[in-house]
Structure formats: C-alpha cells, structure tokens
Amino acid sequence: MDHKRNQDESDIDCGGIHCPRCEYNKLCGSNCDCISAGCVPQCKNYGKCINNKCSCSTGFYGPICEHKSGGLCTDEDLRDTDPILLITFGKGSNQYSTKKPANFHFSTTYEQVFEPTTADGRSSLINSIHDDFGGSWHTGATDHTGDKGGYMFLVNADFKAGEFYRGTVKNLCVGQLYEFSVYLANICKPDKCEIKPNVKFQVRTTVGNQLLAELNSGNVLEHNTLTWKKYGLSFTAKTNSVVLLMISNAAGGMGNDLALDDIALR
Questions:
Q1: Residue-wise over 175-209: b if at least 16 C-beta within 10 A, else e?
Q2: Is residue 47 part of a domain?
Q3: Quick check: is 34 in a domain?
Q4: Fewer CB in 10 Å around end: N or C, the chain?
Q5: Which residues of 45-58 are buried (b: 16+ CB within 10 A; e: fewer)?
C-alpha cells in the first residue's frame, strides 16, 4: 500500500497487486482510491443495491437482476406434452393419508399431521378439508385431480416463511424450455382469513445452489367455493438437473392457508 491520501479521502489508499479491502465498507476503485461501497456492476431492471448486493424487483433474478423469469408457458406444444414429473398425491378412503412427502420424492419444512387439527406450521395429505377452525375453511371440499378419494397437500403456513415443496429432477435437456406448475387453492372462505397465501417459485442448480429462475404467484384469493388455479413459471434448462422449490411468500397467522395439487414439470 502507498499510504497516501488523495483529495478528501479519509482512508489509506488501496493499492498493490491484490487491491486490499478498504475500511468502512468502501471499495477499491480502478484508480486505487477507496470509494463508497455499492453494487458493481450496477443493478439492472429497477433492482436496489442493499448491503452491496442487488435486491431484484419482482420477476427478475441474477447477481445484478439481469435475467427475467417467465410465467406459465404459452407454447401449446409444450403444454400438451406428457409431464416429466406429476404428483397427484394418490387416493384413498381414509380422510388423512398415511403417506409422507418422501413417498412422492419431495421434502417440506411443514410438519405433517395425520389427524385433525392442521395447525399453524403443519401440513396434511387429505382427501376432503376438515372443519379445523369453526367454519373458516371450505369444509368437505375435495382435490383438483378429480379422482374419488384423491388426496391434496394442505398447508397451514406459520409466521416463519417455509418451503412448501423442494424436489430434484434429473436428465433434463440443456437449452430446452420447461414449465414448473401446480394447482393452488385458498382454503379460507371469504372474509374469514386476513392473510392471503402467496408462493415464490424457484429453480436452482443442484450444485452451487445458483438461482436459475424465480417468480411469485401473487396473492391466491379466496372464493365462495374452493377454487383451483394453475400457477408456476417457465425456464430454459442450463443444467441437466435442477432443484424445484415452492416457498411461502406471506406471513402466517390468521390465514395463509392453502391446498396444493397436481405438481408438474413438462
């Protein structure tokens, strides 16, 4: 280091081959002056620089928010193809399934219960919604698949954002367009729950956990009857194996109760 000060700079100039880190969270500029910290390169697409890291606006991702995530695919040929992955959760005569997420090759951070009540932070595989909270939910409503006794994945999300779904898929074709989707339903009746479910979809690499695509569902609204709607994102595979995630993007408490069914990748 040259131990010289330039202009109004209060830090010792940085220099030398390795350009040492400056004091006070400042950065070593190209002229070897310590400058105020920031995001270099600058954040794109309206991303904000927070603690020297880009925080991306909705629909964008990457180190400097340079990539845009796509919504559900509009390619008819892709939508009509058989899914590589399809989870319908099976069917049965018992209201609560004894199977676990591992039987369907995914994990969740929400503890599973096998009888009433599915309280905050809990989940269940169920073929009709139980009256757990005094008529606040669509009691008796059934799954999206439409098979008799078909199970769905019900989650009562809590205050800490957790993972609804984490699963790995392999043998993808690099450069191929894929769609990751699920049918979601807000299980609350209108005006019974304050907080609307909101789901963040992510696609990450299996090595290094690099974010490849991300998109939020927006609020999943309540209806007079249980109403299923398809949500998800499309992405182009950059590796032949990826991790698919669905993460809670809303607070728990009074609401953020939802059902998931027919998880697919095609």
A1: eeebbbbbbbbbbbbeebbebbbbbbbbbbeeeee
A2: no
A3: no
A4: N
A5: bebeeeeeebebee
Distances (CA, A) of 11 to 4, 8, 14, 24, 252: 9, 9, 8, 9, 46
Check pLDDT > 90 for residue 208: yes
Could you tell me if residue 18 is inside a domain? no
Distance of CA 224 to the CA centre of its chain: 27
SS3 166: strand
Mean pLDDT of 236-255: 90
Q: What pLDDT sits at residue 215? A: 94
Closest CA to 122 of 154, 146, 90, 95: 154
CB atoms within 10 A of CB 38: 12
The structure tokens listed for 118 are 């599915």
Is the omega angle on the peptide bond into residue 116 within 30 degrees of 0, that is, cis?
Answer: no
- Burial label, 154 (beta-carbon count in 10 A; 0-12, 13-18, 19+): buried
The H or E element that residue 215 is part of is strand 211-219
Q: Which domain holds residue 232?
A: 85-265
CA 40/CA 60 separation, integer angstroms: 18
Identity at 26, one-letter amino acid code: K
Q: What CATH number should be reported for the domain holding residue 169? A: 2.60.120.200
Other Cβ atoms less than 10 A from the Cβ of 24: the count is 9
Distance between CA atoms of 152 and 261, rounded to whole angstroms?
5
Domains identified in the chain, total number: 1
For the chain, the average pLDDT equals 85
**Which residues, at least 6 apart from 134, have a Cβ–Cβ distance to it below 8 Å?**
none
